[in-house]
Design a protein that fits this description.
The chain has 63 residues and is mainly alpha-helical. The chain is 60% helix and 0% strand. It is built from three helices and no strands.
Length: 63
């Protein structure tokens, strides 16, 4: 039977931070034994949350 692993928010944040600082997707996935798609998904979610927090990504200069 398939065993599903869960990862804490802190762990996901750490991995995304490493990815954004320039670490390769392949290297992170191999080191942390994660699928590459999980790193991409977490990174995309982080970006969406930041855009929502800062007003949809629009700046005052864009208005």
């Amino acid at each position: 039977m398939v065993t599903y692993r869960t990862h804490s928010i802190e762990f996901k944040r750490q991995v995304v931070q490493e990815f954004l600082s320039g670490e390769t997707l392949h290297g992170l996935a191999k080191r942390h034994e994660l699928p590459r798609c999980l790193i991409r998904i977490c990174s995309e979610i982080r970006g969406r949350l930041l855009r929502r927090k800062h007003g949809g990504g629009r700046h005052d200069a864009d208005l």
